[in-house]
Amino acid sequence: MRWEGNRESDNVEDRRGDYDGGGGGGFGFGGRSVGIGTVVVALVASYFLGINPATLLSLLSGGPAPVPTQQAPAHRPPADDRMARFVSTVLADTEDTWTELFRERGGQYVKPKLVLFTGRTRTACGIGQSATGPFYCPADQEIYIDLSFYQLMKERFRVSGEFAEAYVIAHEVGHHVQKLIGISDKVDNARRRMSEAQANALSVRLELQADCFAGVWAYHADRTRNILEEGDIESALNAATAIGDDTLQRQAQGYVVPDSFTHGTSAQRVRWFTRGIESGKMSACNTFEARQL
Ligand SMILES: [Zn+2]
User: Is beta strand 113-116 parallel, antiparallel or unpaired with respect to 126-129?
Assistant: First the structure.
């Protein structure tokens, strides 16, 4: 992936190494209780690739998230930190791309903040943990990433390549786009009135749409800034394959329980990312009306 020298975002906050305790530690979730099965499946899935962001956190807290009490001044990552520069550059690229796409629709893109952390950190969705993997918190509209996740991707899933790493960020940005256009709130409201299986099915559609939006970003970023190199798309598809719920569950427990899927199968993730990157159109990402996912 070609990215060096491109614009970096001002919206990265570096909280690595400064966890403040978060009010006594532990999960700061309140609200309704959920079945232990749900929690276990969500935790297993999120441990392995966490891309279970909002879904997991809102599942656990089940209600409007508490407002964060901490408003520490944001500090930027050091300029000689290559990984942080990479993340800032990818975030900037998503900002430019989505600003333009929103403008074309007559809307305005509000840029999310991206927080780098290690271990755990306070979020408006509760205490974020690196074991969850990268996630998006709709309540504060921030993306949270512990960069050690990329190490996990390489070691456990043998997925490497900068574009695969960028895809992870673009997927979380996809959740932010869903928040801005009102889809996440609709899904959250609908899920509250459903059985667990139905709610999971809806989560799958939400996740696959975020994959598709990641593809839409890549399409436009490549047309405008020529970021893709040979093998890049394959590496992102490998990532999408490695982190499908069926693959994760097989690795974790040796069998697959479709009702507990919250992200979609490997094939589904690949299909929707591909739709996005081939069409470049948000309208191609309507997973909620798709008969076949
Ligand atoms: Zn997701």
Answer: unpaired
Q: How many residues in the chain? A: 293
Helix (H, G, I), strand (E, B) or coil at 240: helix
Sheet holding 12-14, edge to edge: 12-14, 113-116, 142-145, 135-137
Coil, strand or helix: which one is 166?
helix
Distance 52 CA to ligand 1 centre (A): 5
Given a contact cutoff of 8 angstroms between Cβ atoms, the answer to whether 88 and 9 are in contact is yes
CA pair distance 239, 230, nearest whole angstrom: 16
Mean pLDDT value of segment 247-266: 75
Place of tokens 């890049």: 232
Q: Which residue has the higher pLDDT, 258 or 149?
A: 149
Distance 50 CA to ligand 1 centre (A): 8
Q: What is the residue extent of each domain of the chain?
A: 12-285
What span, in angstroms and rounded, lies between the C-alpha atoms of 43 and 49? 10
- pLDDT reported for residue 130: 83
The rounded Å distance from CA 197 to ligand 1 centre is 18
DSSP 8-class letter at 10: S
> Are 261 and 246 within 8 A, CB to CB?
yes
Residue 73 has pLDDT above 90, yes or no: no
The pTM (predicted TM-score) of the whole model is 0.80
Q: What contacts 192, CB < 8 A, 6 or more positions away?
A: 62
**Ligand 1 center to 222 CA (angstroms):** 22
Residue 218 to residue 126: CA distance in whole angstroms: 31
Q: What is the distance in A from the centroid of ligand 1 to the CA of 172?
A: 6
